[in-house]
Specification:
The complex is a heterodimer of chains A (227) and B (458). Chain A is of the alpha/beta class. Chain A contains 6 helices and 11 strands. In chain A, the strands form 3 sheets. In chain A, strands 1-11-6-3-2 form a 5-stranded parallel beta sheet. In chain A, strands 7-4-5-8 form a 4-stranded mixed beta sheet. Chain A has a two-stranded antiparallel ribbon with strand order 9-10. With 458 residues, chain B is an alpha/beta fold. Chain B is built from 21 helices and 10 strands. The longest helix of chain B has 24 residues, at 19-42. The chains are: A alpha/beta (227), B alpha/beta (458). At the A-B interface, α1, α5, β8 and β9 of A face α2, α3, α4, α8 and α10 of B.
Chain lengths: 227, 458
């Protein structure tokens, strides 16, 4: 008999009578201010949270925190100043060892623990958020959920080959319980929380109106031809 | 690893020689326990969360055969190669074979208590394979040629000056420098080179999801990810009890694990591995090594619910004052003391006695294992099977005789009081183990029984 069959039959012979799974809905808790909580928790565990209205502010932050010649990787879908988006990294992951700063888009944050959720399709290479010296994450405020239960509800049966929660910079306290940031992963994590500024909302509304106008004109043309 | 034939009490006596260190160890672990309390008390519904986790794990144990097969099918569909190992030996041989088949002689490893249990490092080193542990605490004990003394804080028994000396010798840090920041930076530089050059990485598994065939690895340092994402081969070793039914159940355990372990809201990294990356091989070794036997022991099976947070160690008054190495097994502390006798009842017969049965371990356990009750039950099994020492057997018999005979009990009490009063040297000596760290009590003039008989009529 193979080890597999031996183990499975031993388990079958030993396992107790079937017991039921609990209902997880009662664990979600009440309403909280998710942005406030997320900011408070992530700051407490060594991360940084900055509220922004425009991506230019991220560009300015990068210019201020990196020196000329240092490698910055932009994995957003938008440009950051002169830095064009880099949708894909085809090179060996080892070549990312010299990344000073990586900028990623996160699709979800969790208020109760300050973590962000990254599907590998946001990473270029799986190793990116770990191997970079400094990690910068852009996230829409509306994507913060209260607890891990809400997070997995949102993840559902999302498809990924690899995905990870990251909460703050890498850290260790293995030497006499003294906390040191920057163990093997990134030395810092900065999350830029994005909100739509009023001007952008106005622009969105104008776009909407323009589209509606086209629709009205088309309808009138249609009517004049056929009625 | 082997500490010869010394039992917990003898090994604890060695640890206790340095009183300042014991005090530091005791206070530091208690501080970690307090951080855990702050988290637990600050989270609404903590008890409901523990109860849910406990029920999920009960369900896992009751349906493990099915879940293991479901996990295997889904993991294979994801492109992961699944191996099964009945015992430690088979596990180690599978790892070696995978390395040799791919012409690899150097491996980087992140934390895995299972590989400690299997003594994988020793085995691979004997076969000429170079293994480097990448968790900082594990790297420190590896350089010191010691086993970890705690499952979450591997070198909690070491002072920073000793670590400074080790790093000076092995990593070339300045002599006499014991600054944690500097030492950690030196380890970061040293291990980054290791991550970039190793073709094989071995990680543990915190949770394996039957429904999706994915597995989750939690670290604060990022070492598991650095190893796995840079290596050509990722080997993940897991015990059969690491299975959970569905992805959504991860929410329950990820909320509990780090809060219970170190008082953090979550570990820095909780990585979900589903498929190997392009061109990479991903292997999972599912290990039994006595777990199916423990599953069949009704009184002890729920020790398999453990998620390895270490909360029971941090709170244990015996662990805090005797140190992890006194347990002479890979997993120390209260949980280790109920797991180890399953593997070798004779060798670990002393461990269930290394407890005050105060119950603090059961109170902090995030999956509600009745640890102290199992310690008490193991004592009974071990005595019945005859694995206790002759002295313990004789004293138990004498105690049973005294407590079952009122005449012997009263005479014994009288003799005891007389000896304490008139011949204290007969008990205040090194032959009396109770006297070792304590003063004997002041003998009362009479027993309560005698006092009551005199006073009841007044």
């Amino acid at each position: 008999m193979s080890s597999r069959d031996k183990i499975l039959s031993a388990v079958a012979a030993s396992q107790p009578r079937l017991s039921l799974l609990p209902d997880l809905d009662i664990l979600k808790g009440g309403e909280i201010n998710v942005v406030e909580k997320f900011t408070e928790v992530l700051t407490a565990i060594g991360g940084k949270v900055i509220n922004i209205a425009r991506l230019d502010e991220v560009t300015a932050y990068i210019e201020m925190n990196t020196a000329a010649g240092q490698r910055v990787v932009n994995l957003l879908s938008d440009s950051l100043g002169m830095r064009a988006p880099q949708a894909d990294i085809k090179d060996l992951p080892h070549t990312l060892d010299n990344i000073e700063l990586a900028v990623l888009q996160a699709d979800m944050g969790i208020a109760e623990n300050g973590a962000i959720w990254l599907n590998e399709n946001r990473l270029g290479q799986r190793v990116t958020p770990f191997i970079c010296q400094h990690l910068v994450v852009i996230m829409d405020k509306s994507n913060i959920v209260p607890t891990m239960h809400h997070a997995y509800e949102k993840i559902g049966d999302e498809k990924y080959g690899f995905a990870t929660f990251i909460a703050g910079p890498s850290k260790t306290a293995d030497i006499e319980q003294s906390l040191v940031l920057g163990a093997h992963g990134s030395r810092s994590m900065t999350v830029f929380l994005r909100i739509f500024k009023q001007a952008e909302l106005v622009k969105l509304f104008q776009n909407y109106l323009a589209k509606t106008k086209v629709a009205i004109i088309l309808t009138l043309v249609y009517m004049s031809v056929f009625c | 690893m082997e500490s010869g034939l010394k039992d917990h009490a003898e090994l604890a006596a060695i640890f206790n020689k340095d009183e300042n260190r014991v005090d530091w160890h005791d206070e530091t672990l208690w501080w970690v326990r307090q951080k855990r309390d702050k988290m637990a008390h600050g989270l609404p519904g903590w008890e409901a969360l523990r109860e849910a986790a406990s029920q999920i794990k009960d369900n896992v144990l009751s349906n493990l055969n099915e879940y293991l097969q479901q996990f295997e099918v889904n993991a294979q569909a994801n492109g992961i190669i699944v191996h099964w190992a009945a015992d430690a030996k088979e596990h180690n041989e599978i790892v070696l074979e995978l390395l040799l088949k791919n012409g690899i002689r150097k491996m980087v490893k992140s934390k895995s208590m299972l590989t400690e249990e299997c003594h994988l490092n020793e085995y691979l080193e004997q076969q000429g394979i170079d293994v480097i542990d990448s968790d900082l605490g594990e790297r420190i004990v590896q350089l010191a040629k010691e086993p970890p003394s705690h499952i979450v804080l591997p070198c909690i028994h070491k002072k920073k000056e000793e670590i400074g000396d080790l790093f000076h010798i092995h990593l070339g840090t300045p002599a006499g420098n014991a600054d944690p920041q500097l030492l950690t930076e030196a380890a970061r530089q040293h291990l980054r080179e290791v991550f970039l050059t190793r073709k094989a990485a071995l990680t543990g598994v915190n949770f394996a999801v039957a429904e999706t065939g994915e597995f989750v690895v939690c670290t604060n340092e990022g070492n598991a990810d650095m190893g796995a994402h840079l290596a050509d081969i990722h080997i993940a070793s897991m015990g059969i009890e690491k299975i959970i039914p569905q992805r959504k159940h991860l929410g329950v355990f990820l909320r509990l694990l780090a809060r219970s372990a170190t008082g953090q809201p979550i570990t820095t990294y909780s990585s979900h591995f589903v498929k190997p990356r392009d061109g990479q091989q991903m292997h999972i070794i599912i290990v039994d090594n006595g777990r199916s036997i423990q599953l069949g022991r009704e009184d002890f099976r729920n020790s398999l619910k453990c998620i390895r947070c270490g909360a029971c160690m941090n709170t244990c008054p015996v662990y805090r004052r005797s140190g992890g190495h006194s347990y002479h097994t890979a997993i120390a502390g209260p949980i280790g003391a109920i797991l180890a006798p399953n593997l070798d009842m004779e060798k670990y017969a002393d461990l269930p006695f290394a407890s005050t049965l105060c119950g603090s371990c059961s109170n902090v356990c995030p999956v509600k294992i009745d640890i102290h009750q199992q310690l008490y039950k193991w004592r009974q099994v071990i005595v019945q099977k005859g694995y206790t020492t002759t002295a313990k057997k004789a004293s138990m018999k004498l105690m049973a005789f005294t407590l079952s005979s009122p005449a012997a009990y009263h005479t014994g009490g009288k003799v005891g009081r007389w000896v304490l009063k008139h011949a204290p040297f007969a008990v205040n000596n090194k032959f009396n183990p109770w006297f070792k760290q304590r003063d004997m009590p002041e003998p009362p003039e009479q027993s309560f029984g005698e006092w009551y008989n005199e006073n009841r009529k007044k």
